[in-house]
Amino acid sequence: MSLWDEVWDVVWVELGDRRYPIVVADGALDQAGKWMREVGLSPGSVHLIVTDETVDRAGYARRVAAALTAEGVRVETAVVPAGEPTKSLEWASRLWEAALAAGLDRRSAIWAVGGGMVGDLAGFVAATYMRGIAFVQVPTTWLAHDAAVGGKVAINLPEAKNVVGAFHQPRLVLYDPTALDSLSARDVASGLAEVVKHACIRDAELFHELAERGKELLHLAGSDRGRLLARSCAIKARVVEEDEKESGVRAHLNFGHTLGHSLETLGDYRRYRHGEAVAVGMVFAALLSEEWLGAPPGTAERIACLLEEIGLPVRIPAEFTDDDLIGPMYKDKKMIGGHLTFVLLETMGRARAVTRIPEEAVRKVLDRHRRQFPPRG
Predict the structure, then answer these.
(1) Which residues lie across from 153 on neighbouring strands?
(2) pLDDT, position 240
């Protein structure tokens, strides 16, 4: 039996000579060395694993290191603090120094083992070290299934998220769903927010299926979990194939992110998980869709019901004023010509990026959001 026969699914991202597989397979962490050879990475150069303290304690990086070592690779591991504040120039600089000290060359690879923060940071380092070396995404969270696909890598500035970055595609995405068994319910829910996002922008049938399953989504395992992950990754892959550098439809993947990034910034990247902030942002964007694009009435309510069912927030905290929320929007990387830009829904499963939305319209919908979904407590 070959490696390819042991997977739940393989989704290919078709980018010509840069095509790569997203492999979803139980036990994939322990097959990392064999998958390395399958995609043509050099075992003769030093490879660097980047992980965070939480993932390191779970032992996932060590399993990848052991699998690579078994194939003759010399491996070094860099462990960074967990949490979004680590996605910074300071830590990128430390990792450049670690790569140089370890002896990484242009045939080396960087392995990002962890959540979305690790993938973004390690990918940014790979994109910039020696003007770009190979990297592999090994997501260990639900949330990272979105961030690991598509080659967008970045670090944050204190005032804005993901504004310093690059497009640098991985050579392989290696997803072992059993790593998700160690996640808290909060982290599972946060990751499911991105599955809901993919359904909202591209797959109305998937949204209906998610709504039917509700709380059951928090407890998926085996083939149910593997195939849902693969289906969501496939939506992301098809968007990336159509628009790798985000000049068109790839912007649709930012549904919920404009307000979501404001909430993350206001919370100093600590109060909210990324998926939690995006959940609130999706409800707001759906309300704006109803007001601005004439999306079917009740679209926001449907999304909010599903998100609350799986334990995600949908309400704007009472302490954040309109000015608090709108200020960071003007520093968002999606803003064009000084005008606010939002990804909205024409209907469930069909999105559109809309520029030049007046601030007054945003304020009006923020007010509606607070009235329709009043803060609790």
Answers:
(1) 166
(2) 95
Q: How many CB atoms lie within 10 A of CB 182?
A: 15
Distance in angstroms (rounded) separating the CA atoms of residues 206 and 166: 31
For residue 154, pLDDT over 60 is answered with yes
What's the sign of the alpha-carbon dihedral 143, 149, 150, 151?
positive
Residues carrying an active site annotation: 131, 152, 194, 236, 246, 250, 254, 257, 261, 274
Output the pTM of the full model. Answer: 0.91
User: Distance between CA 186 and CA 105 in Å, rounded?
Assistant: 39
